[in-house]
Amino acid sequence: MITASPDRPRISVVIPAHNEARFLPRLLRSLGAARGRFVQGAGGVEIIVADNASTDATPRIAAEQGARVVPVAKRTIAAARNGGARAASGDILAFIDADTVSVHPETFNVIAGLLGPGRFVGGATGVRMERLSPGIALTYALMLPIVWLTRMDTGVVFCRREDFLAVGGYDENLLFAEDVKFLFALRRLGRPRGQRLVRARSVKAVASTRKFDEFGDWHYLLDFPRVILGQLFGRRSLADFARRYWYETRR
Hints:
This protein has about 250 residues and is α/β, with parallel strands linked by helices. Helix content is about 45%, strand content about 15%.
């Protein structure tokens, strides 16, 4: 059972960010609105931007909009998530990508309600896309069976602080898919307790289509199979692709 404390927030939101000055303001405005709807008051939620070696105005924008800025030097998304979590004060940790368009206004009330009774070890809100096209819709549809079977989703990912520490946080050796490995670890932790992951579908976030805008609406279906085959046959490095796709893209 998670109990509120008058001396610290109940929920800490961690946003890993590298050169996100373009997209971060809209997410921070959305999080501010959701904080205002939290039943324990806006002070019950803290917003942390884990600034992952930005060279643009990301840290200044975050501070101006009331977020706490935590510098993280190691350039991996997992390190940024962990760095923000180490600085967090809340009993509940929530993680969201900096380019997310918005969160649902009731996000924090729903998360607190789901984790309060102890039935769930953690979960995610899921997302809907900011725009749709045939390529995006088909990509989304192909992902859904995996989500249904595993109960592992994206959007706002949340868990108790104590459970985050118990699984060791995010794996900083990974350039990508650290979020998937983290949810698998949470699921294993909860299984002996009779706890499972939960999908908070009533408060889906709105996901950015930035990657589709940059690489094309069909790129998941065309590029990723080529990369996997290249890795299998030694023609292409998965790590090199990850750096280009997640770490060296245009901002």
